[in-house]
Design a protein that fits this description.
The protein has 331 residues and is α/β, with parallel strands linked by helices. It has 2 domains: 204 residues, 3-Layer(aba) Sandwich (Rossmann fold), CATH 3.40.50.1820; 95 residues, no CATH class. 35% of the residues lie in helices and 16% in strands. Strands 1-2-4-3-5-6-7-8 form an 8-stranded mixed β-sheet, sandwiched between helices.
Length: 331
């Protein structure tokens, strides 16, 4: 068994106490974009970068709680256009290549030699893309709910695949769109989310957000409201990326997996993930000797799913306990 999955802690997978950042900064990355970056935990600890999902989701204090703050130097940031990064909801100079460059800029700005990547959903996509671009700067990956940005995956979620299990929620998602346009839901929403009328953008942002959030948790209730600015940023950024197939060549992340084949990885995948079904994680893990795929029973897609959260904490505690610098140290 590889070092990333060895010596898993006996913990029950409880989240660690919330830890306030010791460093908050705004990083000017050019193109008019300014990124919010924070660090918490141990400044001399093992660096780990949290890569949030969406695109457009932003980071949150909850994401800090998967890591022992006495051991890890935890870095979180809001990707271009979302969270506390500015300008909000901007898609100008906002592509996967820009985000990869931003991550590398953060690493060099913080003087980090290499780091663990911790990301789920779109965060897993971006973590894989960054690792394949800068493999020497990555010490390992912990991924959840894998999404590889392929057309088949977009078709599943926006072309009627998931709708077979949630026909009532799919009908609500389709309802704002005239029937002649429903053959291309991403394109139909794009025309409205990128209209000149900001009020119109907001009206179509909420049903876009509702469709995804309602399916993210195994027992989630449909979302009926969200802060208007959050919904608008999330919907515009996600639709922008999906309209452009995530700015990746078809199958690129599987094709270029050989670039990170030497890196250890753990994938946590909900058995009943309706947003990013398990087949994608299985494809990524097949033939990757250093990859440990863990299918979590009775779980969906969301980071907050109880069994998903517990498994991720166990993994990060296991990596902590396997670190020769801290092995045997009282905690």
């Amino acid at each position: 068994m590889d070092r990333m999955s060895a010596q898993i802690s006996a913990t029950h997978g409880r989240l660690h106490p919330a830890d306030e950042p010791y460093d908050r900064r705004t990083l000017d990355v050019g193109d008019g974009h300014r990124l919010y970056v924070e660090q918490c935990g141990n400044p001399k600890g093992r660096p780990v970068l949290v890569v949030h999902g969406g695109p457009g989701g932003g980071c949150s204090p909850f994401m800090r709680r998967f890591f022992d703050p006495r051991h890890y130097r935890i870095v979180l940031f809001d990707q271009r256009g979302c969270g506390r990064s500015r300008p909000t909801a901007s898609v100008e100079a906002n592509t996967t290549a820009h985000l990869i460059a931003d991550i590398e800029r953060i690493r060099t700005d913080l003087d980090i030699r290499d780091w663990l990547l911790f990301g789920g959903s779109w965060g897993a996509t971006l973590a894989l893309a960054y690792a394949q671009a800068y493999p020497a700067c990555v010490s390992g990956l912990v991924l959840r709910g894998v999404f590889l940005g392929r057309q088949a995956e977009l078709d599943w979620f926006y072309g009627g695949g998931a709708a077979r299990f949630f026909p009532d929620l799919w009908a609500q998602f389709q309802d704002p769109i005239p029937e002649p346009e429903r053959h291309d839901m991403i394109g139909a929403y794009h025309r409205r989310l990128f209209s000149e009328d900001i009020g119109r953008q907001g009206r179509y942002a909420l049903p876009w957000l509702m469709w995804e959030n309602a399916l993210a948790g195994l027992q989630s209730a449909p979302v009926s409201h969200a802060p208007a600015e959050y919904a608008r940023a999330f919907a515009r950024l996600e639709n922008h990326y999906f309209s452009n197939r995530c700015f990746l060549e078809e199958g690129q992340l599987l094709r270029d997996r050989h670039r990170i084949q030497h890196l250890p990885a753990v994938i946590v995948q909900g058995r009943y993930d309706m947003v990013c079904p398990p087949g994608t994680a299985h494809q990524l893990a097949q033939g990757w000797d250093g990859c440990d795929l863990r299918i979590v029973p009775a779980s969906g897609h969301a980071l907050s799913e109880p069994r998903i959260s517990a498994e991720l904490v166990r993994i990060m505690d296991g990596i902590r306990d396997d670190d020769p610098q801290t092995a045997g140290r009282d905690r």
